[in-house]
Amino acid sequence: MNNDTNYDAIVIGGGHNGLVNACYLAKAGLKTLVLEQRPLVGGAAITEELIPGYKFTTFSYALSLLRPDIVQDLDLVSHGLMVLPMTNVFQAGFDGEYLFFGPDSDVNFHEISRFSAEDAESYRDLSHLINRVCHALKPLVDEIPPNSVSQDPADLAEMADLDQYMDDLPEDIRAMLKKFTQGSAADILDEYFESDLLKAQIASSGIIGSKASPRSKESGLIWLFHKLGEYDGVQGDWGFHKGGNGGFTQVVARAFESLGGEIRTEAGVDGVIYENGVASGVHLKDSTSINAPVVISALDPRRTFTQLVNPDDLPEDLITAIGDYKFQGCASKVNFALSDLPNFPGLEGRKDLFTGFTNVGPSFDYLEEAFADCLAGRFSRRPFLDCCVQSTVDPDMSPPGKHVMSCFVMYTPYHLADSDWDTERENLGDTVEATLEEFFPGFRKLVEHREIVTPLDIERVVGLSEGNIFAGEMFTPQMFLNRPAPGWNQYRTPITGYYQCGSGTHPGGGVMGGPGKLAARQILKDRVVT
Amino acid sequence: MPETTPFHDYLNPYNETGIWKHWSGYLVAPKYQYSTTAEYYAIRDSVAVLDTSPLFKYRITGKDSLQFLQTVMVRDIAQCAVGAAQYTCWCDADGFVLQDGVIMRISENEFWMSSAEPSLRYFRATATRLEMQDIEIQDITNDYGILAVQGPHSHTVISQLTDAVNSMGYFELAEVEIAGCPVIISRTGYTGDLGYELWIRADEAQQVWKCLINTGKDFNIIPIGLEALKMARVEAGLLLLGVDFESARFAWVDAQRETPIELGWRWMLRKLEDDPRQFIGRAAIENQIKEKSNRWVTIGLSIDWHDYERVHLEAGIMPPKHDLYCESTKSIYRRGEKEWDYAGYATSFLFSSILKKPIAIAKLPNDLAKPGTEVDLEISIIHKPANVRATVQRMPFYNPAHKTQIFS
Fold first, then answer.
1. pLDDT tens digit string along A155-165?
2. Is the CB of B121 less than 8 angstroms away from the CB of A135?
3. pLDDT tens per residue, range B291-305
4. How confident is the model at residue B407, as a pLDDT?
């Protein structure tokens, strides 16, 4: 059965990148349809009221990486964009030790000086250098990357331009970039700091969502990637979207609809329709099909290249690359409804400890031990936790006096050696509670409800393969020129009219919108040519 | 929470305004009384006391300390006698200024210094890079408080506390005892007036403070805040980090960086030809001197009183003068045929109450940076730009004889 044959473009998957992509297409005048398998759009950026009055950021929980030009281009403010600043970072240490960062650099200087005056000074040097590195990377983040495989003169010229751009960067930036892309966060941090608590706090950015410890060579880039974001121009700062990250995707959905776009929920896609290497629409799970000359997959590369189309129809090197592309999700969420705010020993009653990120991961050793469990095929017995209590700044997240606590948990490998996630789900919840109880005594008594989201749940519910929150590891070999595969990093696929726009494409994961934006740019460029 | 200085509890009752600001994470008062100018005149007329404890303080000791400072600092610390102090700056390898500060030579191989921004790690890393073994660089920021006692009567007051100041020349220092507490006192300051700075152990702040205030009360001693200090420092032609220049360390591009020549500190490089030291940045600085490739020079600007009156009166308003100190950039234009012929800018602007005219600290290209040259300074009159005539002049603008007077 055919219906609605007059779409110009169909986006498969209503996550933030699918929606951003669809917005840009609709804004350019394309009649665009977004198909979402779930009853709500947002993908991994959703807010769900699991129990009345308590709004959970089920998966993604903070905003920074969102490319700021998207806000302007799509007029997101008029559709309700509101990002509240996360002003503080609280790093819990052992035996009541802690690091507490706020918005004032001089106060932070004194805070670090409690551990080391040299560290406090290094922190400024390193922050400035990272800011300069991020500034240098900005043009690369916001452009379609060049094709490193093609021998087409235009592509070769773009590669030459890229080389030139990198060569022209100041030497200290190039050196630092090399450290970030080829080395571990720990190597950099050991060079700059002596305080283990401080190093562990900073290193958390280098492991988030990745099968990497601070000492893994992959952690440098993950750290840098998380610094690419900003809050109103302050590099590396984060915010809460009003109503959680689901509030953000609802804003984009409204922007899309105001541009004339159409969203269909509970419309799972079975596959892309193509013939002789040309796409013409999609088959839905309900056996209907919809035609359109442009089809965009916002799903991860595995689904894009091996499930929505028949991999046998695609070049072998591409399929090999996608086969080698690492997912290996190892992050979970445990979301709590709390009767009150937790207490840290010696700082009881301090709400400000929870108005940003609250981290448990007090030393490199702690993090390495947690990672050793992961490598052994089990979840960390003492996990790294990255917690947010958005209800401290957004009163509409919970009933008055109560709180919702989003708790990001690592490491929890998708593949468990001796068990499975349906068996281990509650055990994970207990482990997280026990860890929070250790650092925030009395925590357990505050728990009114908990929601456990394992890598298997992320895969089942959101569709992200192996539960990788970035739609594939953000390791250097699968970034930029190689995301998701060399030669296929420009949002096209071997099938004409079939595109990719998910986090598995450049610039990468996180609620960034960059892939959706750049894919739209490519699609619109190709339309002009044809 | 901000930190407090060792004197905070004793200063707090003086703050009529209830306003505190942050300086390097410490609470400090912008002013204690409502009139900034009244505080300012304590510096110029009687005696003012200012808490500068938030400055970073380092003690550098060891056999290699002299050579270390000779290598790091632009001025040769060997030229500073034991018992004297030296105002200097330090640069990066490209000759761009990182910071300025005052170094006190306590003994042959012991130096104490203060600076506006932290430099502990930089100094230690540099000492390591220079393979200096016998050197210790300690952060004594929290061990000491500093009181600047400034004004024509500062000597009257301090000399009642210690005889040491009677023979103390400008930029000399002594280790003394005040109220039974060891104090290092130097004849230095940031006001361009007669004055002293006292380094006091943090745990003995109260004794020294009480003694100082009791002795000074007959001479109108008052605590003053940063606003009055800033007024005085413009008249003294003293540059302020973050206002008149940026540290090369946190700059993004060279347009934000400046060499000592560009900062008007050519005097720090006098007799460079007789100075064999290879201090950091020397080659670049020497090259700049040789090539005259400095992009600008920092120099004083004396704004024409009549012109300043005229542009305001023509617009129908009274010219603002009282408590007028401004740190926002003002553009400077070349006077000639062309209108609005951009030439440079002013970083600090003050209506000097004692000089009865507006003055500014300006950055001008070499051909204009000559005393007597006339330029146009852009000011805002009822939200519209207007030019007033100004004359380039060497700083300081105000330089009283008692600043360097010999007392003994």
1. 999 999 999 99
2. no
3. 999 999 999 999 999
4. 92
Interface contact A120-B124, CB threshold 8 A: no
8 Å CB contact of B1 and A106 = no
Q: Which two tokens stand for residue A444?
A: 């357990």
At the topology level of CATH, where does B8-55+142-235 sit? Answer: Gyrase A; domain 2 (3.30.1360)
Distance CA B163, CA B407 (A): 11
Q: How many CB pairs lie under 8 A apart between chains A and B?
A: 37
CB B277 within 8 A of CB B79: no
Q: Report CA dihedral (B255, B115, B109, B83) to the nearest 10 degrees.
A: 110
Q: What is the mean pLDDT of residues B356-383?
A: 98
Q: Which of A110, A125, A132 sits opposite B25 (nearest CB)?
A: A110
List the alpha helices (DSSP H) in B54-202.
65-72, 120-129, 154-161
* Residue pLDDT, tens place only, A177-234: 999 999 999 999 999 999 999 999 999 999 999 999 999 999 999 999 999 999 999 9
User: How long, in residues, is chain A?
Assistant: 530
Q: Which of B1, B121, B250 sits opposite A118 (nearest CB)?
A: B121
- In chain A, the residue whose alpha carbon lies closest to the alpha carbon of B139 is A117
Q: Give the containing element (helix H, strand E) for A10.
A: strand A9-12
How far off is chain A from B12, nearest CA to CA, in Å?
Answer: 21
Which of A112, A118, A121 is the best substitution to test chain B (most B C-beta atoms within 10 A)?
Answer: A121
Chain B residues touching residue A125 (CB < 8 angstroms)? 121, 249
Q: What is the pLDDT of residues A105-119, one digit of tens each?
A: 999 999 999 999 999
For residue B360, what is the enclosing H or E element? strand B357-364
Q: Which among A110, A117, A135 has the least Cβ separation from residue B120?
A: A117
For residue B196, what is the enclosing H or E element? Answer: strand B195-201
Nearest to A354 by CA among A398, A299, A295: A398
Q: How far apart are CA B281 and CA B120, in angstroms?
A: 19
Task: Identify the pLDDT of residue A4.
Answer: 52
Distance from the A66 Cα atom to the nearest Cα atom in chain B, whole angstroms? 24
Share of chain B above pLDDT 70, in %: 100
Q: What is the DSSP code string of B207-274? A: HHHHHHHHHHGGGTEEE--HHHHHHHHHHTT---BTTTB--GGG-SSGGG---TTTTT-GGGGTTGGG
Mean pLDDT over B178-196 rounds to: 98
Interface test with A, best of B120, B138, B256 (most A CBs within 10 A): B120
- Summarize the confidence of residues A257-284 as an average pLDDT: 98
As a whole number of angstroms, the distance between CA A358 and CA A196 comes to: 17
Q: How many whole angstroms separate alpha carbon B374 and alpha carbon A257?
A: 62
What residues contact B96, with CB distance under 8 A and at least 6 apart?
B248, B251, B254, B257, B258, B259, B281
Domain ranges of chain B: 8-55+142-235, 297-393
CATH class of B297-393: mainly beta
Q: Which residues of B touch A103 (CB under 8 A)?
A: none
CB distance B182 to B175 below 8 Å: yes
Helix (H) or strand (E) holding B299: strand B297-303
Closest-approach residue (CA) in chain B for A100:
B1
Determine the Cα–Cα distance for residues A216 and A186; give it in Å rounded to an integer. Answer: 8
Nearest residue in B to A135, CA atom = B252
Q: What is the ipTM of this complex?
A: 0.90
Cβ–Cβ below 8 Å for A132 and B118: no
| Chain B contact set for A117 (CB, 8 A) | 118, 120-121, 139, 141
pLDDT at residue B168 is higher than 60: yes
- Beta carbons within 10 angstroms of residue B305's beta carbon: 16
The token duo for B119 is 């430099």
Q: Which two tokens stand for residue A104?
A: 């004032």
List of chain B residues whose C-beta atoms are within 8 Å of the C-beta of residue A118: 120-121, 124
Cα A169 from Cα B202, distance rounded (Å): 47
- The answer to whether A101 touches A111, Cβ cutoff 8 Å, is yes
